Amino acid sequence: MAKYDFVMLWILTLTTAIAAARPMVVDKGRQITYTGLDRNGIEVFLGIPFGHDTGGKNRFKPPVAVVPPRGSNVNATVYGPICPQELRAGSQGKLVISENCLNLNIGRPKNMTSHEKLAVMVTIYGGGYWVGHNQDPRWHADNMVKESVANGRPIIHVAMNYRLGGEYTLLLNKLKRLLF
Predict the structure, then answer these.
(1) Is-contact 63 51, C-beta < 8 A?
(2) Burial class (CB in 10 A: 0-12, 13-18, 19+), 157
(3) 8 A C-beta contact, residue 165 and residue 129
């Protein structure tokens, strides 16, 4: 039994050490902690909601800001859903689609302090308001942030999801198929 306890203690210690190594940002005013991950030599925070669900009673209305409750711990280690759209061949099964899709992915250099003032680069994907999402590898922060650090001008990179015009067309097309 003592051997089992030692193994459990070791696993707990290792798990705590791994979790402690994850990048964190703390909003001291609201006491909200955002936990991200280390990816390709930068710190990334994924799927951070900035607007409430755009479906139901919120459809066709301006987005309502999301503010996590005081004292929250926000897990920013996985991508959030993408906004409704027609998916290209091969992307089905990899992406979660939801009208609750207003989220940010943020990348920054490792080991930043709160005193550093960096430029912020915001990526708004193309797609003519019909297709696109912030999970597309072309909009990942990794290479842009690493290159900015190598050039001596580090940046913070933000990629956002936004409602697409096609989401309503997609819904109407599905309704037509069902009704006619």
Answers:
(1) yes
(2) buried
(3) yes
pLDDT tens digits, 125-156: 887 767 888 998 888 999 999 999 999 999 99
Mean of pLDDT values over 51-77: 90
| Residues with Cβ within 8 Å of residue 72, at least 6 apart in sequence | 31, 32, 33
CA proximity to 134, closest of 81, 170, 91, 67: 81
Phi-psi region of 101 (alpha: psi -120 to 50; beta: other; left: phi over 0): alpha
Q: Band of the pLDDT at 113, cuts 50, 70, 90? A: confident
Q: Which token pair is 120? A: 């912020």
In the chain, which residue ranges form alpha helices assigned H by DSSP? 2-21, 142-150, 166-179
Hunting for tokens 């940002």 — which residue is that?
25
Q: Give the integer Cα–Cα distance in Å for 75 and 58.
A: 25
pTM: 0.78
Query: What tokens appear for 178 in the block?
Result: 């069902």
Query: Please, what is the average pLDDT of the chain?
Result: 81
Contacts of residue 52, Cβ cutoff 8 Å, sequence gap at least 6: 58, 63, 64, 65, 66, 100, 102
What is the Cα–Cα distance from 42 to 144, expressed in whole angstroms? 10
